[in-house]
Specification:
The chain has 475 residues and is mainly β. It is built from 3 helices and 23 strands. 42% of the residues are buried.
Length: 475
Amino acid sequence: MAPPPSGSPIELTTLEILHDKGILSDAEYKSAIRDLSETAGTHAPHEGTVVMGKWATTLYGFVDIDSIWDSTRSLNDLPGAPGIARPQSAAGGLAGENSRFQFGARNSRIGFRMKAPEFGGGVRASAQLEMDFLGTQLPVGNGQPYFGSEAAYFTNPTFRIRHMNFKLETPVVDIMMGQYWQLFGWQPLFQPNTVELQGVPGELYARTPQLRISKTVKAYPITLELAIAAVRAVQRDNGFPDGEGGIRLSVDSWTGVQTIGQTGTQISPLSIAATGLVRRVSVNSFVAPKTTTELNVSALAVDAFVPVVPGTKENMQNSLSIHGEFTTGYGDADMFTGQTGGITFPSVGTPAATFNADIDPGIVGYDAGGGLHGIQWTTFLAGLQYYLPGCDGKAWITGNYSHIQSANIGDYAAVLGNGTKASIYKGYDWFDAMVFVRPVAPVLFGLEYANFNTLYVDQIHAINHRVQLSGFYVF
């Protein structure tokens, strides 16, 4: 890289060069790489960085172009876990009998990481601003004034906050404030590698504003991490934030190649994490006397990443790793993408109108007597990644499988017009298989087949087949 003009106070360089020159300490360098690895992976050390004195700003991100074919008209480019359209033979309509093709760039991402000079005693301050184009938009459709057009949805997508936070790392504890991954599931360290826009069915995938305090204890080859967080509540009208906590153990001498999301290829240690979520909701009652009903709900997640055949930065080929995630609990549907089960709130009054429960759907349900209950969910997600021999980490194959089930959603499926068994699902199975190829350093291609299988409360299955080809330019 060309040197800056003589006497210029500003330098354009990379994180790796700054570390090699001693401008970034080992701790500062590792912190920066960790923040960027989800998006940039092994490219993170080479990210372009503007330096003024010991202040530095790093630009990173990727351009993502997706082409997607679905066998039904059930899914957007970002699928989540909606109910697949039923065929006409099972009380469905045309959506379950016809295919859909989508072409878009909404998943493209841009981010900035800023750091201040390291203070005395090893105190480090940094901030992260990361955005993409998957923001809330009008639903696509016809016949209603609030519907948007397909052209606007794909060609004029909404720019949104993905991460927006600052971090203060000290020898005692680390403090993070702002929007970042939920601690529940220790995201994103155990997220699957898939061509699809995440989150996929049954995957913990959520970001939110929070205050997090964590502590890392290193005793090579073991690293132990502890964290607690006060998190934006699932319902703002209850007076309490959600609480999350967790513990993560890693074996730093046992490593494998892992790709998080689509582009985050990196070397990761064997690790296992257990996290928990507790929350209180205060929901409007629809039976006399009119009041609010409080309910405490909780959930547990266990995650693991296990290198079966080791891999290192110098030798990625023939590396095989597996990962898994298990969750169970009540009232945690918002931790997943689009996982409401199709349930809504009761219809009451004359003429009938949907009751305002003052909470998002899918978290709680009412019984016939007006009693409030958390919707129960159990999920399982597992996957493997194999990096082909002779390709130096530039080609690999991946497969994933997930299962979702609810033990009680059917109990609230038809309460006071709360929906029918034909629209509410209690089970979901999803799997995919794909190949990734990186022909040159910044460019990545991925080709995937995925299968979405919804089990409705009335025992009807509805299936969607998806084929997706995506291309990425990582910068």
